[in-house]
Fold this sequence. Notes:
Distance between the termini of chain A: 66 Å
Number of strands of chain A: 11
Mean pLDDT of chain A: 85
CATH superfamily of the largest domain in chain A: Chorismate lyase-like
Oligomer: homodimer
CATH class of the largest domain in chain A: Alpha Beta
CATH topology of the largest domain in chain A: Chorismate lyase
Shape of chain A: elongated
CATH architecture of the largest domain in chain A: 3-Layer(aba) Sandwich
Amino acid sequence: MNNLQLRGASSLHESVREELLKRIKSGIYLPGSPIPSTAMLSEEFGVSPITIKRSIRDLQTAGMLIAVAGKGTFVKERRRFLREVDVWLSSIDNARKLGFRPRLQLLSITREKISDATMSVLNPPQDAMLCVRKTVLADDLPIMYDATYLSSDIDEDIVEKFSECSVIDALEQHAIRIVNTRLIIDAAPAAGKVEEIFAIPNGYPMLRRLYKVTTTKSRITIFGIVESPFDRLACSLNLPANQMSGSYLKSKK
Amino acid sequence: MNNLQLRGASSLHESVREELLKRIKSGIYLPGSPIPSTAMLSEEFGVSPITIKRSIRDLQTAGMLIAVAGKGTFVKERRRFLREVDVWLSSIDNARKLGFRPRLQLLSITREKISDATMSVLNPPQDAMLCVRKTVLADDLPIMYDATYLSSDIDEDIVEKFSECSVIDALEQHAIRIVNTRLIIDAAPAAGKVEEIFAIPNGYPMLRRLYKVTTTKSRITIFGIVESPFDRLACSLNLPANQMSGSYLKSKK
DNA sequence: GAGTGGTCTAGACCACCCT
DNA sequence: GGGTGGTCTAGACCACTCC
């Protein structure tokens, strides 16, 4: 009935997972299409439905499958957005350049403190700031969740711009020059609304870009966090020799 | 007996998870220390041990806990290494600068093709290459798993250097100059040995840096993949205005 | 030997979707 | 109504660790 236990898997649910993964990779199960139901797989493999469910859940958290209650379990479509991080190009323009149809959606404008642990490396102010939250969609699929933090004494018409377009475009439209961008790329578990928006289960990690943008106007320093599902986005950057500093160029020791 | 269901959690295991997370964050359960056993938590919360296990497993994949069979479940120590990606500094020197005691461990030297999907963006050669695998430890904890790919016609003494020290240091010792580094930062599920080394479960994603280093010697182009658990490493970079290109500096449209 | 987590199973209930 | 996945439970077995 089955041909499991072929790989180096030490447990049943692992074997099942490997086998399903193999079928996805080899194209037996196609992106966007449903895989057989738990019951059917259970019968095919001669394993308890619970064990099948376990494997499927693991593949879900690994971003390979997406299960929809009442409908079935589907192979996730894999199309990844390459964010060019070393170029001053807004996410929107970046997406357009890569052939996506990008769209921006304002979620909320609130007053909040920045509480993220990683963010503290960038030394954000301790007091409450204006927080503009939006999602960026590419081809109608959400790929980014952005929280932009502005000092709360900022002009209302600037805030408006921030809710309509990206940080870079908003600044440009007010003729404010960027002096420096400090970026931290990390991954952290999805929390709250982010889980919903991207249908991410169980606090699974999101790829994040935390930024601090300093401008010529000393009053205007912008902080922000952009979160993306790791299977929808990757960052790319280029480091030419003539721009580099560090131990390599100095005579070491 | 319990005070669950307080958060916006829609299921029992979610409530339990939130409660455990709260206790970790508030310091009731301390880093490095064990949390109560499944049986005890089951009693305390008035929930099936299986539901407790479910919550614990989710917190494990989220990098908060680490369960050791026969010993107990422990709160993971959180100390994160900030890799400065825009500076030409070897990982080793970077770690040392941050106060870690770094160490390098050679794992294997093999001949392999580069098969990673993301890597294809960097257009690596299709034929088999020399693959040097090593781990980087900081304070005796593994933080990076590096696979360096070299064209297989390279001198043996250079290969030797690559297995002893980082790419940058190896090149420097042979007086080879780096012309450009192209970097892609993404996250991808852990596979095979990586799961073991970092005690990562279920193909949980690792933060990765894929690089292509071009040098003055045309024969020598180096590819590589560095993987790290996302709770042990983040990348940082700085983008000063004078080095930037892109739409912002050009007159747009 | 007592305690730990890990695995696998069986069975029941729910909410949802589609026809 | 018959299918789907999601949740929760009970119970049994194993391998491991520590005393």
